Each structure stands twice: as C-alpha cells, then as structure tokens.
Amino acid sequence: MVLAENICGSEVDAQGRCAHYRQHWDVVANRCATCGQWWACHRCHEEGTGHAFGRVSREAADAVLCGACGHRMGYADYHGAAGCPRCGHPFNPGCALHTGLYFL
Fold first, then answer.
1. Which terminus of the chain is more exposed, N or C, with fewer CB under 10 A?
2. Which of the residues in the chain have pLDDT under 70?
3. 76 Cβ partners below 8 Å, 6+ apart?
4. Which SUPFAM superfamilies match (predicted)?
5. Range of 43's domain?
6. Phi and psi for 11 in degrees, rounded to 5?
C-alpha cells in the first residue's frame, strides 16, 4: 500500500492534500508516467521537477491513488466516481476539469 507520505508535493498532509488543494475531498494523487512518482497535484509537480507531467494511459491500472486509504485505481474506476471504491472517501468532482493534464 502506498501511504500519503509517499505522495510528493508542497505541504502534503496525512491524506495527500497539498498547499494548492486543501479541501476535505482533495485526497487524490496522480502518478506521473515520466518519473513514476505520485503527486498531490499538477502544480506541485511543476514546482518539484524539471519535466512536464507525464500523462498516464487511461488503460493503466495504477494511475490514481486515494490518499485516504492507499487504494490504487485506473481511470475507469476513478473517472466519474463520487468517492474511493474501497473506503468511500469522497473525491473532488472538480478534478474532472484536469483530466487532460493527467491522462492520455
């Protein structure tokens, strides 16, 4: 299981929230295909690396991580879900606006 301390970003809390996204439901981390690390958000990645965020295939099985329970999931399980399929923690519906930043 990946724990929140393995989520990269600025001021990441115990459930993966960062300095840019701190609401209760901001617990999703995305894996960068370039560096393979989990990131709290695209802005944290921009600040913390020297490369563009490597978008992950929508078919990848481990593209998204729930910071509340560590559950890894693919785009199909994550996209449009109100919350984590394992623990039920709610996800921010506004994240759908960033689909193109994280997925091919």
1. N
2. 1-5
3. 58
4. CHY zinc finger-like
5. 28-101
6. 55, 45
